[in-house]
Amino acid sequence: MDLLQMKDKNIVVMGVANERSIAWGIAKKLLEVGANVIFTYRKERSKGKIEKVLENYQDYNTAVIECDVNSDESIARAFSQIGEQFGVIHGIVHSVAFAHAEDLKNRFVETTREGYAFAQDTSAYSLVAVANAARPFMTEGGSIVTMSYLGGQRVLDGYNVMGVAKAALEAAMRYLAADLGADGIRVNAISAGAIRTLAAKGVPSFNTILHKIEETSPLKRNTNQEEVADMMLVMLSALSRGVTGETIFVDSGYHILG
Ligand code: NAD
Fold first, then answer.
1. Which residues are recorded as binding substrate (predicted)?
2. Which of 9, 78, 110, 232 is in the most buried spot, having the most CB atoms within 10 Å?
3. Atom of ligand 1 nearest to the CA of 70
């Protein structure tokens, strides 16, 4: 049996903003192995970018659907549309996060109530809401994978409110894994190393982080979208059928350092 078999699996990929997005690296891999990829986007600008890159993938089974994770109505509409069009959902890539720029620049102690709630809502609660909306269509079981970062487990300079949101995201992932395991749905997180993307631009000390990882990580280099996408294939496929509730690091081993 080919445990990496993804042909004709319906996978929802949330969070492609442009070709640098981690989610785009993942989607590309999924298309290469024959999966049907349902892209969700928040902004019209992202929709345009997704449709543009998909011009090179015209023979593939794809869909592009609006889903703003800050809105219950938008999530419900998106998943009922996906259910209608594809029937069964086999996997979800949750690669979505956002915090106000000032909450990453200011001292953590100055985080506002609104900024804290917004980061949590967008970056952590969204996983719960999405899992609940997708559940009725995951009738054959499946795999939900979210994207985390080391700043959810350690204090990293400039990650601030997003670090707290990632901590909540990883805890939510474990509670969802416990809740949905009986339905054959696995829930995991990939904690990626620093990768230059649109979201990373908001982290003030990003260049310093990249240099530090290159100099000190066990593999002495930074990771990239492709390495994360390869691990995502493992986590979405039956290769990882015994794994749930886990945070897997794809970060050149940086997280093991003291
Ligand atoms: P990105 O900016 O390309 O992707 C972030 C996505 O989140 C965008 O597509 C954006 O549209 C989407 N998003 C934000 N608010 C949304 C909303 N309300 N509704 C729907 N979508 C919304 O950046 P990325 O680096 O590819 O980030 C993807 C994930 O990977 C994030 O969870 C990020 O925290 C995580 N991550 C990134 C790095 C890194 O260094 N780049 C490292 C570890 C983890």
1. 99
2. 232
3. 18
Residue type, 89: I
Does residue 68 have its Cβ closer than 6 Å to ligand 1? Answer: yes
Cβ-Cβ contacts under 8 Å for 112 (sequence gap 6 or more): 103
Atom of ligand 1 nearest to the CA of 71: 18
The string of pLDDT tens digits covering residues 9-61 is 999 999 999 999 999 999 999 999 999 999 999 989 999 999 999 999 999 99
Whole-Å CA distances, 177 to 110, 134, 146, 236: 33, 14, 12, 14
Q: Is 70 in the pocket of ligand 1 (CB under 6 A)?
A: yes
* CA-based nearest residue to 216, from 245, 251, 172: 251
Active site positions, annotated: 149, 159
**Amino acid found at 78:** A
Residue 21: name the closest of 182, 147, 105, 118 by CA: 147
What is each CA distance from 95 to 140, 217, 254, in whole angstroms?
Answer: 23, 24, 21
pLDDT beyond 90 at 3: no
Structural domains in the chain, sorted by start: 10-251 (3.40.50.720)
Coil vs helix vs strand at 203: coil
> Cα(213)–Cα(14) distance, rounded to whole angstroms?
27
Residues 203-229: pLDDT tens digits? 888 899 999 999 999 999 999 999 999
